[in-house]
Amino acid sequence: MSGCLACKACSTQCPIKIDVPEFRSRFLQLYHTRYLRPLRDHVVASVESYAPLMARAPKTFNFFMSQPWVQSLSRRHIGMVDLPMLSTPTLQQQLVGHRSANVTLEQLERYSDEQRAKTVLVVQDLFTSYYDAQVVADFIKLADKLGFEPVVLPFSPNGKAQHIKGFLQRFARTPAKRLSF
């Protein structure tokens, strides 16, 4: 189970539909009711909470994360090697002035059927929005050139890391917050 990527390919290919990622999450939840969780699990499960805060000053964050002593601490105490650097410029900086970043839910609800047919809703993902923002910016440019109106929805945690690490109670609360959009 330690090599599981939680991609769920096993459950779609399995004739009896065994969902290994779900099984693994439940196991980890039960296991850690008895045994102490490693610090790494807490860091990984909380990444969606602190990434937006770090993205407010990505160059400062990247400077500290690239320091040898920080990398050494991360490797020894958290077990993480080669921490990813935040994107600079950030997605918000790349989209300044673009109409896709300024559409509100109320405006979307007022769209005509014709406008809705040409609208592409871009649901932000933690890793592309904060660690590879150029991909999202390029997609928005592509959608524009193809005649669509891309609308970037506000970032909202999806809880994937919480699920993978077995924080199932926290994970159950995360999608509920997301659905309130």
From TrEMBL:
Keyword entries, A-Z: Iron, Iron-sulfur, Metal-binding
InterPro entries: 4Fe4S_Fe-S-bd (IPR017896), 4Fe4S_Fe_S_CS (IPR017900)
Domain (4Fe-4S ferredoxin-type) ranges: 1-26
Domain of life: Bacteria
GO molecular function, one term: metal ion binding
Keyword Ligase belongs to the record: no
Keyword Methyltransferase on entry: no
Protein name in the entry: sn-glycerol-3-phosphate dehydrogenase subunit C
Source species: Cedecea neteri
Lineage of origin: Bacteria, Pseudomonadati, Pseudomonadota, Gammaproteobacteria, Enterobacterales
